[in-house]
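Anyone up for a design puzzle?
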């Protein structure tokens, strides 16, 4: 239960920051401004000031004059007086009642324009949708929005890997320890295997597709084969990264475990390693506003994570998913036979010599 307490404490620490970022996002995002920008860029649209738009249905009362344009947001616009600009309804109808005058255009987005006895000097247009969509919220992000998005992605990946790590630590511990042993024995070789494996992913998919395309049945199996390869690669990457997190957590906790005279559970070591990598991304996300510093921190986090994933992936390939626990060890050399190895010790005292074979007597020469 200790790893779960660590995870809960980490989420409690991040909660205030996430709330502040969400508040900043809510205050800075302007959906009306995004739609007005799209309306201005639409070939059949028009330019409209932000302060001319009102929430809900609006009415220009009879006998009143509006200098400039008037627009309704998600409601109908009832014109009974005079509008010296454009009359626009976004998500509603424009209704020009008897005696009303619109000296500009009458435009409805998502509704219709109805001239019920009034007059429109400009054009009467109806758009079912904008050909140029609203601005994507992430195109012009504030630093708070960019930091919130980065932290959200980091938290999401952390939770996913934590759940997978819990399952691996409980049900595939031997495979995890075998991969970790490969990493400890030869870090550089595991890294080279990982790079080679990443380079070979796309050729492997292409060769599989070409091989299956020879037969009709193989053509039907191509989608399943591609999905199977992708899932296998994703599983190997995740398992390798968890093994690397396990090795990292073990290196950090080894001194503490030695002082305490005990050992840390496998799941706890995985969570410790994942938390260390996660903190790198949190630092990079938190300093998004810092410009170059934030970029450098994110670059460091990405480089460290890529190396960890590559090394773990290579160790996973070299150990065949943890089924080959150790590298081949040289065969033990038998110790040399001592000169007096023929002697036989006795339980009483001394050493009793065994009877040596005597050579046959020589023949006497005549």
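Challenge accepted. My sequence:
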């Amino acid at each position: 239960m200790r790893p779960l307490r660590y995870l809960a404490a980490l989420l409690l620490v991040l909660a205030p920051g996430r709330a502040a970022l969400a508040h900043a996002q809510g205050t800075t995002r302007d959906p009306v401004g995004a739609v007005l920008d799209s309306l201005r860029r639409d070939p059949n649209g028009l330019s409209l000031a932000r302060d001319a738009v009102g929430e809900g249905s609006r009415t220009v009362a009879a006998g009143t004059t509006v200098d400039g344009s008037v627009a309704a947001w998600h409601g109908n616009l009832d014109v009974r007086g005079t509008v010296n600009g454009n009359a626009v309804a976004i998500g509603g109808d424009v209704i020009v009642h008897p005696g009303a005058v619109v000296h500009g255009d009458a435009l409805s987005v998502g509704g219709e324009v109805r001239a019920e006895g009034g007059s429109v000097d400009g054009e009467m247009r109806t758009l079912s949708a904008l050909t140029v969509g609203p601005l994507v919220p992430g195109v012009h992000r504030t630093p708070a929005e960019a930091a919130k998005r980065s932290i959200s992605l980091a938290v999401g990946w952390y939770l996913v890997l934590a759940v997978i790590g819990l399952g691996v630590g409980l049900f595939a511990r031997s495979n995890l320890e075998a991969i970790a042993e490969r990493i400890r024995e030869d870090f550089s070789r595991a890294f080279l295997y990982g790079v080679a494996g990443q380079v070979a992913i796309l050729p492997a998919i292409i060769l599989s597709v070409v091989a299956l395309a020879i037969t009709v049945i193989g053509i039907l199996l191509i989608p399943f084969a591609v999905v199977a390869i992708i899932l296998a690669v994703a599983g190997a990457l995740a398992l390798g990264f968890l093994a690397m997190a396990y090795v990292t957590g073990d290196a950090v906790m080894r001194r503490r475990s030695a002082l305490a005279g005990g050992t840390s559970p496998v799941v706890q070591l995985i969570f410790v390693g994942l938390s260390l990598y996660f903190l790198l991304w949190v630092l990079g996300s938190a300093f998004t506003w810092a410009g170059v510093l934030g970029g450098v921190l994110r670059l460091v986090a990405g480089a460290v994570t890529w190396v960890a994933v590559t090394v773990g992936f290579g160790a996973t390939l070299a150990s065949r998913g943890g089924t080959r626990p150790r590298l081949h060890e040289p065969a033990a050399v038998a110790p040399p036979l001592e000169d007096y190895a023929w002697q036989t010790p006795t339980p009483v005292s001394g050493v009793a010599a065994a009877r040596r074979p005597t050579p046959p007597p020589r023949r006497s020469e005549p």
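A detail worth pointing out: The first strand starts at residue 53 and ends at 55.
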